C-alpha cells in the first residue's frame, strides 16, 4: 500500500488494532531494531501512538497530554468505541526490565489527531 504522511518507525512487538468501525488502524509502542543503527537509543522501545486512515491512506501521529505509559512492547490494548477510549495493560518496559501490570486509559476524544 502506498501511504501519505510521515510513516511510523519500523517496529516489532507492537500492538495494532482497527478502530472507528474499521476505518482506521491504530498502532502503539513496540521495539525498533534500527534505533542503534540510527544512533537513537531513545527509540529502542517506543510509546508512540499512530493512526492510519484506511480511506485516505494517510498517517497521523496522535499527541497525548498528561500522564502516559512509559515506552513498552507486547502490551495488550483494547478500544472502547462508545466512549472513544483506549486501554493499555501490561507490556515489557525497557527501563525496569520486567513485565508491567499497569493499566492506562487514553481518551481519544481529547487527544490531538
Characterise this structure.
The chain is globular and about 35 Å long. The model has no long low-confidence stretch (mean pLDDT 88). It is an all-beta fold and 113 residues long. The protein has no helices and 9 strands. The protein has a 4-stranded antiparallel β-sheet, with no helix packed on it. Strands 6-7-9 form a 3-stranded antiparallel β-sheet, with no helix packed on it.
Please report which band the strand proportion falls in: under 5%, 5-15%, 15-25%, 25-35%, 35-45% or over 45%. Answer: 35-45%
Fraction of residues in helices?
under 10%
Q: What is the count of DSSP helices, taking H or I runs of 4+ residues?
A: 0
**What is the approximate shape?**
globular
Q: How many domains?
A: 1
Low-confidence stretches: none
Total number of beta strands? 9
